[in-house]
């Protein structure tokens, strides 16, 4: 029985082996040859799909890098595999084209079989790659070590006084109190609120070093609100500190999404600098405080005490001006006076300091302006300060600052430096001004006569900027960037409007029938981005202004060379 069964099964086994080992491979080889052209067409189609997918990925990678994101490892590996596969395709396509040319003269069926087999293998590899493209997540992520942080301020920027010490200690105690979630620092413009808030922010990240029982803040965020708040810009700056992107594929994220993201931060301090009007932090920005998030605290700075009351701050801290001794010490330091200085100059210095009203923003530039000056120049400066009455200044608290800043402005040596200073006021409030933009402005305005090289103009502008920084009229805020204190900017706009010899202006709405012929430079702050003023003629057309700063230099039809700086209010 057993032998009979084996004898009957043996022919079937042999037949199966013959089919598997001989017939099927031969059939596959014939199929490869027969489907050669179809396989080649399918391969070329897959190549196009892979090239398109690779290009889309490269666009996403470029966009991520522009947003300072780090690229995921699997994304880089997928790009490398796609590049390598597309590169290998070149050699295979050359072999296929050569086979097609030879087929009518010297057909090589073995060669065609090999090429068709390679094509099918490449099709399979590309299909797997395309599947990986379809499963790909976000291409980039934020580097936690590269997130912005509050920098320590050097002692020259932070003016230590009895008032600043007291205010500093009050705010640190408020940060320690778990029942306080909103702190307000108020004081006159130019008294040093921003500098003090930054010092508090620096220490907030190291409270555990002060006292092991205290919890430090994991994140400290700072953003400027200003007189005309741009809430999208404020949201973007807050989001940047926590590694969150306010934009997604559908458009812009909502305040609620930022609110939810901030709730994930265990301990965070948000500094909102220079608030002028009460703000609903949850609805306008998306900041969770109070019962919404006990770990989130907000520090506000403002010139107006009424803001404190309207926003129900649990802790209100006032920063006062420097006392007489502190003001005199700071002024003498900036003016370069020492124990061996002329007594008559020291008497004048004491009289000038009183005019500064204890405001660092007035003391520092004026002291710097008078450094190294003669006795007669000191006398002239005091005479101008004593006789000046700025009745047109709305805020009486800022009159002293304006008088002193005007004296500092008048002491600048040349008109080119003064013009660079005036040009800075045409940028939006609290803007970090790129010096290279000022170079373009100076070039377009032919500010430096007789110079036909932009390299030479750049050198002159950089020299003017250094003079302004050394005078305390501009603040250094990074490589090739400067900033203008809001009080200084308001002073510049005031002086530009009050002096006939200075033809600079800020226009909040577009007077469409205005020719602006009497201006040297104008800054339009507006959201009307669909048309230019009728009186402005250009040898080119702009179909629509984007909601960002557009610099139009050397415009014809107004003056020989004119610079217009337009920026949208919502940019």
Automatic annotation (TrEMBL):
Entry-linked SUPFAM superfamilies: P-loop containing nucleoside triphosphate hydrolases
InterPro entries: Apaf_helical, NB-ARC, P-loop_NTPase, Plant_NBS-LRR, WH-like_DNA-bd_sf
Keyword Signal found: yes
Domain NB-ARC, residue spans: 167-336
Secretion signal, residue range per the UniProt entry: 1-16
Keyword match Signal: yes
Descriptive protein name: Disease resistance protein At4g27190
Stretches assigned to coiled coil: 33-95
Protein encoded by which gene: LOC121217241
Alphabetical keyword list: ATP-binding, Coiled coil, Leucine-rich repeat, Nucleotide-binding, Plant defense, Repeat, Signal
């Amino acid at each position: 029985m057993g032998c009979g069964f084996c004898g009957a099964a043996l022919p079937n086994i042999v037949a199966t082996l013959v089919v598997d080992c001989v017939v099927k491979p031969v059939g596959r080889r014939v199929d490869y040859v027969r489907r050669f052209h179809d396989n080649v067409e399918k391969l070329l189609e897959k190549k196009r799909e892979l090239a398109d997918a690779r290009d889309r990925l490269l666009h996403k990678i470029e966009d991520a890098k522009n947003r300072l994101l780090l690229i995921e490892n699997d994304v880089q590996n997928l790009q490398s595999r796609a590049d390598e596969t597309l590169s290998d395709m070149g050699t295979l396509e050359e072999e296929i084209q050569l086979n097609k040319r030879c087929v009518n003269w010297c057909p090589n069926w073995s060669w065609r079989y090999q090429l068709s087999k390679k094509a099918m293998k490449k099709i399979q590899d590309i299909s797997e790659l395309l599947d990986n493209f379809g499963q790909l997540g976000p291409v980039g992520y934020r580097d936690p070590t590269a997130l912005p942080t509050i920098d320590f301020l050097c002692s020259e920027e932070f003016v230590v006084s009895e008032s600043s010490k007291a205010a500093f200690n009050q705010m640190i105690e408020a940060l320690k109190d778990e029942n306080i979630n909103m702190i307000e620092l108020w004081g006159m413009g130019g008294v040093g609120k921003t500098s003090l808030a930054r010092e508090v922010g620096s220490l907030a990240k190291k409270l555990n070093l002060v006292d092991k029982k205290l919890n430090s803040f994991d994140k400290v965020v700072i953003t400027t609100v200003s007189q005309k708040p741009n809430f999208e810009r404020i949201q973007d700056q807050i989001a940047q500190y926590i590694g969150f992107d306010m934009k997604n594929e559908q458009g812009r994220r909502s305040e609620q999404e930022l609110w939810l993201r901030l709730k994930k931060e265990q301990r965070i301090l948000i500094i909102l600098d220079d608030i002028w009007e009460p703000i609903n932090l949850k609805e306008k920005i998306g900041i969770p405080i109070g019962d919404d998030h006990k770990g989130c605290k907000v520090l506000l700075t403002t010139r107006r005490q009424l803001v404190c009351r309207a926003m129900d701050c649990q802790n209100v801290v006032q920063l006062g001006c420097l006392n007489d001794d502190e003001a005199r010490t700071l002024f003498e330091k900036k003016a370069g006076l020492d124990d061996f200085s002329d007594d008559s100059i020291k008497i004048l210095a004491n009289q000038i300091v009183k005019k500064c009203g204890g405001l660092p923003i007035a003391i520092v530039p004026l002291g710097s302006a008078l450094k190294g000056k003669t006795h007669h120049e000191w006398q002239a400066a005091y005479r101008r300060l004593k006789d000046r009455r700025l009745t047109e200044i709305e805020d009486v608290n800022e009159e002293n600052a304006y008088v002193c800043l005007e004296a500092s402005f008048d002491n600048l040596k040349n008109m080119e430096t003064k013009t660079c200073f005036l040009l800075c006021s045409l940028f939006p409030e609290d803007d970090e001004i790129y010096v290279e933009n000022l170079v373009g402005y100076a070039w377009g305005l032919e500010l430096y006569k007789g110079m036909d090289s932009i390299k030479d103009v750049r050198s002159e502008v950089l020299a003017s900027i250094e003079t302004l920084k050394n005078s305390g009229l501009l603040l250094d805020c990074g490589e090739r960037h400067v900033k203008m204190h809001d009080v200084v900017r308001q002073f510049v706009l005031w002086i530009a409007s009050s002096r006939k010899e200075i033809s600079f202006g800020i226009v909040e709405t577009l007077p469409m029938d205005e020719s602006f012929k009497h201006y040297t430079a104008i800054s339009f702050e507006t959201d009307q981005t669909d048309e230019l003023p009728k009186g402005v003629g250009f040898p080119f057309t702009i179909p629509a202004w984007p909601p960002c700063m557009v610099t139009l230099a050397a415009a014809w039809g107004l003056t020989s060379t004119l610079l217009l700086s337009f920026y949208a209010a919502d940019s």
